[in-house]
Amino acid sequence: MNTDQIIQPERRLVWFRSDLRIHDNPALFSACQPSDNGQPAEVIACFMRPEKQWQQHDWGSNKQRYTERCVLDLQQTLKSRNIPLLTLDVSDFAGQIHYLLKLCQVLSISQILACEEPELNERHRDAQLIASAGAIGIKCHFFNDQSLIPMGQLLKKDGTPYRVYSAFRKQCLNWLESHPVTTWPDATVNLSQQQPFIELNASEWPLWQPESHSADQIQQQWPASEQQLLQTLDRFCTEGIQQYDTARDYPADQTGTSKLSAALACGKLSVRSCWLAARQVQAVDPQYQQAASCWCDELLWREFYRHLLVLYPDLCKRQPFKPETRAIRWRHAPNDLKRWQQGKTGFPLVDAAMRQLIQTGWMHNRLRMLVAVFLSKYLLIDWREGEYWFMQHLIDADLASNNGGWQWAASTGTDAVPYFRLLSPYRQAERFDAEGKFIATFLPELADLPAKKRIKPDIGAILYPEPMTDLKKSRQLAMEEFKRLSN
Asked: Cα angle at 351 between 345 and 353, to 5 degrees?
């Protein structure tokens, strides 16, 4: 046989970033397809941890460690499919490009496949990679993955972006009616039979070994196994979603939310899988239409904020969506900020929420709104201080949703809450934690008090801080500052 005629299989590199899964992964699916000549391709995967870049982007240890666990699970799953996942430590985005090109040259890779990310620096990095790789004959393919509709492509008839959620939602639902959501099959199963495991000579690479961090108390509460998370999604849609429209507002109700936000933020689950699971509930159980629709609305809010991040890149630069709000004279009050961070404001529901964040790496969504309004309106402290604190502690930290939520609460963003509408810490507790169960969980010093006293303790009666501000006076100061912008 003439060895010159042997056709070498095409090698493709799947670059995992915020899509740490094998199910419904368009980049991985496409990489596993046969070459144009019908020959099976060889698939190699990589994940490059840019720890310095993560820190510059305000990622805290909870998000970083959870990502590591998700990568480790992915590595083990891919290995069972005979796909090696090379994990590298590269410091920053420039290092990612450098080692990607080096990998392609050393391993004779012809294509790089990856899923898009909405953030500005990430998009600049990908554009630079496309140019650099193209110059040496390597093709790059990027796939929409973090949104139901390609990010930035849902526009009004005049070509301008939607700035109000309700209008965006309506058009989004119309678009999805004519472009039904589908998921990508798992194409890796066949590779375990088609390609032998590729042993990589990794001695010259800056290797990084992801760890399980299973001993971490916070990490234990958040599964990083793709298989387990798919089961969690199925369980939520068969048991939990039925009461979602009402139970989601009560922070003491452990079944009131899906607890899938960390998996969505890391791409361990896809938004398409979540959307279709909810739609299936609506199709099978008409009595749960409202509850499932309510969860779909939360997914569409996530969608909205991702589109905005692409269409308004200044949001990635910590700039307010409403330019006029740059003139707000935020208070420089480091001691007040510290009390808010530590959950020592003297307002029990606010404090319980802040301690939930510190102790669990997560906070109930209604409470995220409450503590954000409290910081930005009652204390008139710059919303960016809160946005940063959340990014540092949330295990589901996500720039688009975090920025969107904080700007909504601070009345600086798109479709924001009117500046004169504030959430009262006491009223919110009376409505959504009337028995003080949630407060007692995170403020044990109040646990022995009657429910009403947990919500509003008597000043000086126990070892608990006095309220740090007068709500009426603080509200008036905030109103005056926001009114000044229109004068």
From this structure: 145
